């Protein structure tokens, strides 16, 4: 496989020709914030946190969805990008009811961590405070829509890794919700194999194992990538 | 089918025509004001007057002057009747023989008509869109024959490129270049898609074209398919256009019957099938990648570009997507030549553009004008100014993705670059006129509410940014906002423009930014010094 | 050397942030050498004084008294610090927001889920009037520093106070929950 040479933040790095800017940056030890990206799943480019500046392109491009090219000049950490990232994370915090103090995932939450990464001290936007439901009809898991960020990692993990597609999205705009089967309570979703991959994939405390309480929910999202990698090697 | 067969069909059609042909508009606009009943009454009146041998009542497509509907015209002497009521049908028939007639008559010399130039809409109000014979009688499908027998795909693309035609969906991408890219992209199969998911508030150009001249679009798609090497086409039409869908279905069936769609068209090796896909009410499906997802049976959501559909489109194959009006220009360009087309319009915007002229304007309806006409000419001459003489304040072009142009800039010519310079866009062709009484903050709020409702929810800036912006605009409108709120609104404009995934989110700030640019004092007037918080009422 | 005038304010919160402050134990004695505590729920001072150097605000804006007090705080303090998640985000105090405006929440709490013969508390001048939506303090006044946490730990509060006393305002991000 051919190699490509590019610069990220002025540093010359090499990458495989089929790699994304995100992969190349991470290999070179350059961190770019992400939320909808999860190793092992397809890219949707939806959270817009990994947007980077590429010389010669007027538009910002998602690092997760942009393949490296020879001589590409990438900036990942300009004041403009930092301001945008902070605003996006603030918008997420304002969208639903993210109350870290009473959340199962507190301390192990990617959204909480993102707030630190992007330098968010407070939220400048009006809290929308939507009335969201909690579904604990499943025997082992629950979903609290107050904490969902609509990253669709559960949808993709279920579809692409478990091969089931119990999860999907219903509704649009800020009224969109992740749903199980044809919008039935999770416990009645007959396609669900209770494998728990959605739980692994969830970046926040939205999908949780029943019985866990505040700050108790620790998951290892990298297990999704491990499963995918193991399959690719065997088959 | 051979060229001769086309001519025979055309000849037969012309020879079966009766001495007098009366056109009755049966498009959605006129139907909404009772045109169907009028059509039947006209037929009954002919029957009653014993004029069956002499007079033909023909249901035709849109005549354009929708605000004056239902409209009726007499072909031979060019008499135009406006606001016709069904009970006036006998009067109109009697007037053919000099009887007295008090039905309101229109004037062809009115600037609304005389300043127009019809290319895409040339058959609107002239032919019966439900009969392929009528389309063929006015020269239909001859361009396709010419292309298949006398031009190579490369020559077709060259002609479109030289014509200077640019995408009429809004962005103005050079059509020839797009075709060339699809033609050159490697793929086992290729597709042609016609984007008929017109959704801008106040815009109805594509609906009218589809309803009035469906074969024009099929012919344009066929020529495109030949040029890029596609054998399957999809017409994606929004479900809110039932009449357009019905007429397209009929048109496709007729074209198949006459072997103008299907296999070995005009006895060549060119095969082309067209199917209709009906949209389910999502504005975002007008965005090409969302539209493709919708055709594929998936949730209608955009995906990041590149790759562009020209390389990686429907089911991963190279796909050409053009808007209805763009396809409507193809056959005329082939028939009259690229140079003819390139001679119309301005330096960088060629041909004509169809606009839906609505709002606070005397003459509402569809107009097709050469590129480069000024907004003032359109609003004041064709539109006739405001109905009650109130001064015009501005005009919104491009719908929720466009901007508001103030009266002071009305000498701006309508072409892609000039409109962009003044902070708006050409867009698909909506043109909403506002008068001095219009509240610009409310206008911005209206369009933001539309974008908020239509956001698909995939990317965060658009999904939740539009909600925040809508709330801020509501707060300003209600006199509850501070200068800090206005600053936050402007920051969000910048955020959405730069970070949203697709055009819907990227352009959602346009109405806010353009009204702020030209009417900032209307916002500032409404600001208060201190934050106000609602206390519970006792 | 001028002693710094310090105030602490308790709005719509559980007082946990003040408990965390008290958790600083013997360091409070060191602190007392540098500051005068001029207003606080743990000091007997009825009105918010003029000319305060630094005010730590615990809690969100939940009623009309908070609204009034926070304006005085801003007008009379050189620096305002939002102390803890309720002040910074609304947090638990704002959990009622999704349930609707204040009136319907009172109805749910006192009538529907309480005593069916109950009445809505209404004692003008004594029981404060609720705001319809609980908001963090920066929605009402400009805030200089946001010290998140539910509650922020003692050492974290101490680090901030030490930095402020030394005249080097710290940069604070995240830390929610």
Written account of the structure:
Chain A has 235 residues and is of the alpha+beta class. In chain A, 25% of the residues lie in helices and 16% in strands. Chain A is globular and about 55 Å long. Chain B folds into four domains: 18-109, Glutaredoxin (3-Layer(aba) Sandwich), CATH 3.40.30; 139-342, NADH-ubiquinone oxidoreductase 51kDa subunit (Rossmann fold, 3-Layer(aba) Sandwich); 352-435, Roll (Ubiquitin-like (UB roll)); 440-524, NADH-ubiquinone oxidoreductase 51kDa subunit, iron-sulphur binding domain (de novo design (two linked rop proteins), Up-down Bundle). Chain B is built from 22 helices and 13 strands. In chain B, helix 19 (460-477) packs antiparallel against helix 20. The termini of chain B are far apart. The model of chain B has no long low-confidence stretch (mean pLDDT 95). Chain C has one domain (4-165): 3-Layer(aba) Sandwich (Rossmann fold), CATH 3.40.50.700. Helix content of chain C is 31%, strand content 21%. Chain C has 177 residues and is of the alpha/beta class. Classes of the chains: A alpha+beta (235), B alpha/beta (538), C alpha/beta (177). Chains in contact: A-B, A-C, B-C. At the A-B interface, strand 4 and helix 2 of A face helix 18, helix 19 and helix 20 of B.
């Amino acid at each position: 496989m051919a190699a490509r040479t590019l610069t990220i933040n002025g540093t010359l790095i090499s990458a495989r020709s089929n790699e994304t800017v995100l992969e190349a940056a991470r290999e070179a030890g350059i961190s770019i914030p992400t939320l909808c990206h999860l190793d092992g799943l397809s890219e949707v480019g939806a959270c817009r946190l990994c947007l980077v500046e590429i010389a010669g392109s007027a538009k910002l491009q998602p690092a997760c969805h942009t393949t490296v090219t020879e001589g590409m000049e990438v900036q990942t950490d300009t004041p403009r990008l930092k301001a945008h990232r902070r605003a996006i994370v603030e918008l997420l915090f304002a969208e639903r009811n993210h109350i870290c103090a009473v959340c199962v995932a507190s301390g192990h939450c990617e959204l909480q961590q993102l707030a630190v990464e992007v330098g968010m001290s407070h939220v400048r936007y009006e809290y929308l405070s939507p009335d969201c439901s909690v579904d604990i009809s499943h025997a082992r898991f629950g979903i609290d829509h107050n904490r969902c960020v609509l990253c669709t990692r559960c949808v993709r993990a279920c579809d692409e890794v478990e091969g089931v597609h119990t999860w999907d999205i219903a509704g649009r705009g800020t009224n969109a919700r992740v749903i199980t089967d044809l919008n039935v309570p999770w416990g009645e979703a007959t396609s669900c194999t209770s494998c728990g991959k959605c739980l692994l994939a969830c970046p926040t405390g939205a999908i949780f194992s029943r019985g866990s309480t505040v700050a108790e929910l620790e998951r290892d999202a990298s297990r999704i990538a491990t499963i995918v990698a193991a399959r690719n090697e065997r088959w | 089918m051979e060229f001769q067969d086309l001519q025979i069909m055309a000849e037969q059609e012309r020879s079966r025509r009766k001495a007098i042909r009366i056109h009755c508009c049966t498009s959605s606009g006129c139907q909404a004001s009772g045109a169907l009943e009028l059509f039947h009454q006209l037929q009954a009146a002919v029957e009653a007057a014993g004029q069956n041998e002499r007079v033909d009542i023909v249901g035709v497509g849109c005549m354009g002057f929708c605000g004056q509907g239902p409209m009726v015209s007499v072909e031979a002497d060019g008499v135009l009747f406006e606001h016709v009521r069904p009970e006036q049908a006998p009067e109109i028939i009697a007037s053919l023989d000099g009887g007295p007639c008090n039905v309101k008559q229109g004037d062809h010399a009115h600037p609304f008509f005389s300043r127009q130039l019809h290319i895409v809409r040339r058959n609107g109000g002239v032919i019966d869109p439900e009969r392929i014979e009528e389309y063929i009688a006015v020269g239909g499908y001859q361009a396709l024959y010419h292309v298949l027998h006398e031009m190579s795909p490369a020559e077709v693309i060259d002609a479109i490129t030289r014509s200077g035609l640019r995408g009429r969906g809004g962005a103005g991408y050079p059509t020839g270049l797009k075709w060339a890219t699809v033609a050159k992209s490697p793929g086992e199969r290729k597709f042609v898609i016609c984007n008929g998911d017109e959704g801008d508030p106040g815009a109805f150009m594509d609906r009218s074209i589809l309803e009035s001249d469906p074969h024009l679009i099929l012919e344009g798609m066929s020529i495109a398919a030949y040029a890029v090497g596609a054998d399957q086409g999809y017409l994606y039409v929004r479900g809110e256009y039932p009449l357009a869908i019905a007429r397209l279905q009929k048109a496709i069936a007729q074209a198949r019957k006459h072997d103008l769609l299907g296999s070995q068209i005009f006895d060549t090796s060119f095969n082309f099938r067209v199917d209709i896909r009906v949209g389910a009410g999502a504005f975002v499906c007008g965005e090409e990648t969302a539209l493709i997802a919708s055709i594929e049976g998936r949730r209608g959501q955009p995906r990041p570009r590149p790759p562009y559909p020209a390389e990686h489109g429907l089911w991963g194959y190279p796909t050409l997507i053009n808007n209805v009006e763009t396809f409507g220009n193809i056959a005329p360009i082939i028939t009259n030549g690229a140079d003819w087309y390139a001679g119309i319009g301005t330096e960088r915007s060629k041909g004509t553009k169809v606009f839906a002229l609505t709002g606070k304007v005397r003459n509402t309806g569809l107009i097709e004008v050469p590129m480069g006409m000024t907004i003032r000419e359109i609003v004041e001459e064709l539109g006739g100014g405001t109905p009650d003489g109130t001064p015009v304040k501005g005009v919104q072009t491009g719908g929720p993705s466009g901007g508001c142009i103030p009266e002071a800039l009305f000498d701006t010519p309508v072409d892609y670059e000039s409109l962009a310079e003044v902070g708006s866009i050409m867009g698909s062709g909506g043109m909403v006129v506002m008068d001095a009484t219009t509240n610009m903050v409310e206008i911005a709020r209206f369009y933001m509410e539309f974008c908020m409702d239509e956001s698909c929810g995939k990317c965060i800036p658009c999904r939740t940014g539009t909600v925040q912006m809508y709330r801020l605009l509501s707060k300003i409108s209600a006199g509850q906002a501070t200068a800090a709120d206005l600053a936050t609104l402007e920051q969000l404009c910048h955020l959405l423009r730069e970070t949203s995934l697709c055009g819907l989110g990227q352009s959602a700030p346009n109405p806010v930014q353009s009204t702020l640019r030209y009417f900032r004092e209307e916002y500032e007037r409404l600001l208060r010094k201190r934050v106000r918080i609602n206390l519970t009422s006792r | 050397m001028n002693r710094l005038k310090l105030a602490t304010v308790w709005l719509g919160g559980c007082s946990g942030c003040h408990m965390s402050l008290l958790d600083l134990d013997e360091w409070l004695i060191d602190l007392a050498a540098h500051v005068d505590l001029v207003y606080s729920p743990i000091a007997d001072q009825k009105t918010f004084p003029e000319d305060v150097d630094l005010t730590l605000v615990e809690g969100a804006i939940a009623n009309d008294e908070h609204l009034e007090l926070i304006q005085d705080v801003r007008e009379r303090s050189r620096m305002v610090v939002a102390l803890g998640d309720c002040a910074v985000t609304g947090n638990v105090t704002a959990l009622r927001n999704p349930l609707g405006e204040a009136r319907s929440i009172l109805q749910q709490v006192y009538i529907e889920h309480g005593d069916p013969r109950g009445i809505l508390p209404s004692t003008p001048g004594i029981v404060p009037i609720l705001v319809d939506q609980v908001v963090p303090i920066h929605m009402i006044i400009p805030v200089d520093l946001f010290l998140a946490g539910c509650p922020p730990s003692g050492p974290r509060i101490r680090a901030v106070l030490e930095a402020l006393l030394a005249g080097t305002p710290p940069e604070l991000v995240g830390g929610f929950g």
